[in-house]
Amino acid sequence: MSRVSDDRTLVLLRHAKAEQVPGKPDHDRELTDRGARDAAAAGTWLRDEGIVAELVICSTSRRTRQTWEFAARGGAHTEFVEYRRSVYQSGTSGILETIREDAGEVRTVVLVGHAPTIPDLASGLTDGQGSHDAHVAMGEGYPTCGLAVLRYAGDWPDLSAGDCDLERFHVCRG
User: Fold this and answer.
1) How far apart are CA 10 and CA 53, in angstroms?
2) Within a domain: residue 89?
3) Is the separation of the CB atoms in 114 and 88 below 8 Å?
4) Quick check: is 41 in a domain?
5) What tens digit of pLDDT does each residue of 79-125 get?
6) 32 in a structural domain
7) Domain presence at residue 34
8) Cα 159 to chain center, whole Å?
9) 44 is in which domain, residue-wise?
10) Which of 4, 42, 76, 126 is the most buried (most CB within 10 A)?
11) What is the pTM of this model?
12) For residues 155 and 130, what is the distance between their CA atoms, to the nearest angstrom?
């Protein structure tokens, strides 16, 4: 049985509201003004909840990079940010592999990505386990700047479907 001190935290953050510009490559889409405010609110929420990322794994898209930049301005903190194209291109299995390979010994990882992959990953990793209220909230939708806080009592390389408890689900609005 794991001790509480062995628990790890995985925060799955969907990027904030992005522009819809016909003809602009998807990878280059930027945050709207609302998206910037929401991302800053996410950073404030993370800070106020005492969630300090030891590692941020972020998609390489412009909107996800901006989401983390504004979250940091809002109070979120990390020492290390890794930008991974796999978070942009891969489905849940690719992102899961990225977490397994990159997280190392850190206790708290924030992953900034996209729908439908982020909601699918949150659902698959928790498989109904954890807070009933958080599952109900997540089941109502995983909008832009939604985040799920998952607890995991294992080593990152062993992370698999159903291994986490959904502790909280929150939609950040600024």
Assistant:
1) 9
2) no
3) yes
4) yes
5) 899 999 999 999 999 999 999 999 999 999 999 999 999 999 999 99
6) yes
7) yes
8) 15
9) 24-53
10) 42
11) 0.96
12) 19
